[in-house]
Design brief:
alpha+beta; Glutaredoxin; 4 strands; 4-stranded mixed β-sheet
Length: 87
């Protein structure tokens, strides 16, 4: 089975980051049987100077296997499609 690494980059007390978390976890929870295995990491730009410099104007940022999938607002349909295309 395929596995995917999702990384959600944000910071505490960020309403867009909270919204993105809800979208990402909602999509993961709704995936059909046989979907890729998902590992989700959440990291804060406040804990990593390099991430801060790279993404401070774009948070939240969602990476799939280390590549930027989307930022600011995470579209659930687009995310679901990207995950299911990995089967």
């Amino acid at each position: 089975m395929t596995s995917l690494q999702l990384t959600l980059i944000g910071k505490p007390d960020c309403h867009l980051c909270e919204d993105a978390h809800a979208v990402v976890t909602g999509v993961i929870d709704s995936l059909p049987a046989g979907s890729p295995e998902i590992a989700l990491d959440e990291v804060s730009i406040l804990d990593d100077a390099e991430l801060y410099e790279r993404h401070w104007e774009e948070i939240p940022v969602l990476l799939i296997n280390g590549k930027v999938h989307n930022y600011w607002r995470i579209d659930p349909d687009r995310l679901r499609t990207a995950i299911l295309e990995q089967r």
